[in-house]
Amino acid sequence: MPTDVKLENYLSDLERALRPLPVSDRAEIVTEIKSHVLSALEREPNQPMDDVLAALGSAETVANRYLLERGARPVKPPLSPIIKWLVFGFVATVAMCLLFVGMLIWKFSPLVKLDEGSGQVTILNGAIHLEKGKRQELSGDRELAEGKRVQVDFENGRVEVRTAKEMKFTWRCRTSSTSSKTESSATAEGLLLDLRGLDDLRCELSVPRRTQLRLAGGNGKIDLERPKFGIEVNLSNGKVDLVPDEGEKYRYALSVGNGKIDEFSSSDAPDALSVKVQLGNGKISHSE
Amino acid sequence: MYAAMSNANDNWRTQIRKGYLELCILSLIRVRKRIYGFDLISELETRGLEVKEGTLYPLLNRMTSDGCLSAAWETDNLKGHPRKFYSLTRDGQRALGEMGSEFESMIQVYRKLVQ
User: Fold this and answer.
1) Tally of domains within chain A
2) CA distance B30 to chain A (A)
3) Alpha carbon of A166 to those of A145, A244, A271, B63: distances in Å?
4) Cβ(A62)–Cβ(B54) under 8 Å?
5) Does the distance separating the beta carbons of B58 and A66 come in below 8 Å?
6) Is A161 part of any domain?
7) How high is the ipTM of this complex?
């Protein structure tokens, strides 16, 4: 680069860095510095311009010394235009992404909504809708005398069992299966309710006192609340929760292949109700 | 530790030169009557005081604003480019006298301290 151009560039930078000062002061300073450089080159003509300018210091440094001597704040060197645009571009991109995400969240809120009652799952405010299938309701009742037995067979589901107020066995079930075929038939011992083949079963059973209930299933959860009847449960996998009735005595025969059994207080009284539970994997809990 | 001491010494040297340099500039200009920046740097260097150009010119600018120096542009027909010549003002003369006295006092104090 020709010497004059280097000097002019330097003086341009100096003048720009002196911008807090009045125009006339800036011009005088630039002229004096130029005079110094020319004097140096006169004294040593072979001296490189770069050396003369390096001895002065960078234009920003010289300008800042002038400003400091006058009690003004030094000027920070301006950012390269490329860097300025890079920073601006990055900030703008991040801002736009955040805005877009915010709009998506606002548009598709709630993101996931679960209706436990109907078993429906709504994703992205209805953009995706999952339905487990309509639930069929099955219900019925049968007279059941004392000493009789009702057998309920099922595959998978949840069964809640209470003591009926009357001598009548009632069932009220919901299933997601579209086919609602069930069988309830009288047997010599009492009654058989076959709920096998029904998916996602939810049943409430009311069993008359002093009768016998036999529940046999694959996977499930069985809640026995204050039973006043004998019970026999056979379950492959799941959990059995038993809330004993305070006015009753029970004779327990409980076994779990893999799992846990809470403590139960068994009675040998002749009028104690028999509670037999066989569970393959799971837990037999004593609930209050 | 040596680096820390060296830094401390450099800081001290920088601080003490700030006031001392002004005294030297005023003294030299009084002797020369009028001088321009480039020659001033050379004269100071000859007398053992090295000053960077980037330091001197802002200082001359401020001393002119303060009224200690007056400046005038002159163009040498033979050399071509304009030069800014500095000379002492009356205020500069007075300031030089006060600084010189103060400096002499400081030297006396220092000599007493080291005896």
Assistant:
1) 2
2) 21
3) 10, 20, 21, 114
4) yes
5) yes
6) yes
7) 0.87
Q: Quickly list H helices, chain A.
A: 3-17, 23-43, 49-56, 59-69, 81-107
Give the alpha-carbon dihedral of A249, A250, A251, A255, to 10 degrees: -160
Interface test with B, best of A18, A29, A36, A56 (most B CBs within 10 A): A36
List the CATH number of the domain containing B64: 1.10.10.10
Residue A259 lies in a domain: yes
| Number of structural domains in chain B | 1
| Out of B36, B55, B65, closest to residue A65 by CB | B55
B57 contacts in chain A (CB < 8 Å): 29, 32-33, 36, 62, 66
Picking from B38, B58, B65, the nearest residue to A36 by CB comes out as B38
A115 is a domain residue: no
> Do A46 and A183 reside in the same domain of the chain?
no
Helix (H) or strand (E) holding A149, with range, is strand A149-153
- Residue contact B37–A66, C-beta within 8 A: no
| B interface test, pick of A35, A58, A75 with most B CB neighbours within 10 Å | A35
In terms of C-beta density within 10 A (0-12 exposed, 13-18 middle, 19 or more buried), how is residue B92 classed?
A: buried
Task: Based on the fold, state whether residues A65 and A143 are members of the same structural domain.
Answer: no
Interface contact B37-A34, CB threshold 8 A: no
The residue range of the domain holding B59 is 2-114
- Closest chain B residue by Cα to residue A18: B58
Beta carbons of B84 and A35 less than 8 Å apart: yes
A130 in any annotated domain = no
288 residues of chain A, pLDDT tens digit each: 555 899 999 999 999 999 999 999 999 999 999 999 999 998 998 989 999 999 999 999 999 999 988 887 777 766 677 888 898 999 999 999 999 999 888 887 777 777 665 666 777 776 675 665 567 888 899 998 889 999 999 999 999 999 999 999 999 999 887 765 667 888 888 899 998 888 888 999 999 999 999 999 999 999 999 999 999 999 999 999 999 999 999 999 999 999 999 999 999 999 999 999 999 999 999 987
Query: Which structural domain, as residue segments, surrounds residue A14?
Result: 3-69
Helices (H) and strands (E) in chain B, counts: 4, 3
Which residue, of A69, A93, A120, is where some domain finishes?
A69
